[in-house]
Each structure stands twice: as structure tokens, then as C-alpha cells.
Amino acid sequence: MPRVLETGDTDESAGPDEALYARMRWNMPLSPEHAGLLLDRLDLRPGQRIADLGCGWGELLLSAVGRAGAGTSGIGIDDDASVLERGRREALRRGLPAEFVRADAAAWRGAADRVLCTGAAHAFGGTGDALRALADVVPPGGRLLYGDGFWSRSPAPEAVGLLGEGIGSLTDLLEAARAAGWRVIHVSEADQREWDDFESTFRAGRQEWLLDHEDHPRAAEIREWLDGREREYVTVYRGILGFAYLILAH
Questions:
Q1: Which of 60, 177, 190, 231 is the most exposed place for a label (fewest CB within 10 A)?
Q2: Mean pLDDT over all residues of the chain?
Q3: Distance of alpha carbon 124 from alpha carbon 143, whole angstroms
Q4: Alpha carbon 23 to its chain's center
Q5: CA angle, corner 31, sides to 148 and 243, nearest 5?
Q6: Cβ atoms of 146 and 246 closer than 8 Å
Q7: Against a cut of 0.85, is the pTM above it?
Q8: Tens digit of pLDDT for each residue in 120-133?
Q9: Cα–Cα distances in Å, from 63 out to 20, 57, 84, 90, 131?
Q10: Residue ranges of domains in the chain
Q11: 189 or 18, which is more confident?
Q12: What is the CATH number of domain 32-192+241-249?
């Protein structure tokens, strides 16, 4: 099983694949301060069950469980075994009652008082499908933290070609939530600094690997990937693709 490096970890034997998420706190444009605001609006309380569908390594889930207090438990659902293992290690290190299960997030039908689903709409088939499916998962009186992309400015054809045609405006996203039966409790979006940090930390693990392995057989491949990703961000969708966080209830 590939080992995912964590922030501050320096494993000389790790390759570029293991280094991919090594310097990321979580896989979305979100600062710790913004995350704290969202978790406050989620109305976390002791004893709740919290689920994260498409959790990755579950940092936001673990933050929620720790914030909610005594008697709270968490479950993270994802189909990537390597990132789930990172979540298990971190839950154990912090002594937090959270389990991580390899499964299809869209097929999960467990019970939870609070649900997180950020950047995982694709697992459900798109924004509308995700919001309708999640309405069946969150019980009446529960709340959902939902994160999804939107066009903050009209995209050029290159951006649509790169990121797909299923993205709408923030207004479209809010209307899709209401159409699925949700009430919008809170809405905020990632700012430019959050986006820049997200994109930079996504590349950072492999940047560090490349600096230490210039003669590696995969060095040219990784350099091309890094430079290409940076160019795409800066020239195609920086300042154009937004990311919204919605606190929803029904």
C-alpha cells in the first residue's frame, strides 16, 4: 500500500506518487480559520455522529469530531485506500473516535447527525445528483456541509474544456440546493489566498521530491507534470473557478 507523507514528514524512500498530497492539510481551497467558521455554522454538539462522504484522508472530519466534543464519533467514506490509511493513522495519533471505510460514497446509507461532502459531487454524478442523494442521507434536523465548484467569472473555452461543462454559477449552485429541498443556512467561498495555497501545496510534495531526485528516471515526467499544472492554474482558471461552501438543512 502506498504511503502518503504528512506535513513535515521526510521519507527518503518515498516516490513521487506517495509525495502527491504530502504538504496538503486537506484537498480543497480552505484555510484553518475558514474551516473553523464552517464547523461553527454546522452546529456541532457532543454525542453527534458525523460522516464525511468522499473524505480523502479525513482532516476536516477529524477537526469536526474533535470540535464537537465528548461522545462524538466519525466515519469517513472514500474509495482510495492509501489516503484512508493516512486518516486512520492520524485518528489514532490524536485519540479521536473516527473510522475510515473504503466504499463508494454515493452508495453509503448510514446514519449521521452531521454530514460533510466537499469536492466530491463527481462521485454522485454531478452537483444536482449529489444534492438530491445527500437529502436522503441527512435526517430532518441534521445539517450538511457541502462544497462545490462554480464559475466566479465567465470561463473561456479552455477552462470549460479542462474542467468540464457541468459547472454553473454560484446562483446556479444555490438554486440546485433549493431544488433538492435544502434551506441554505450559510454560504461562503474560498478566497484567492486559499486557492493559491491549495494549488501550491498540491504541487509542493512533488516539487520537494524533484529537488531531491533530479537524476531519478521519472524526474522529467514529474517536472513536466508540475510545470503543466502550474501553467493550467495560472493561465486557465485562476480567479475564474470558485469554490463555495454551503451549510444546508432540511
A1: 231
A2: 94
A3: 19
A4: 14
A5: 20
A6: yes
A7: yes
A8: 999 999 999 999 99
A9: 22, 12, 16, 11, 23
A10: 32-192+241-249, 195-232
A11: 189
A12: 3.40.50.150
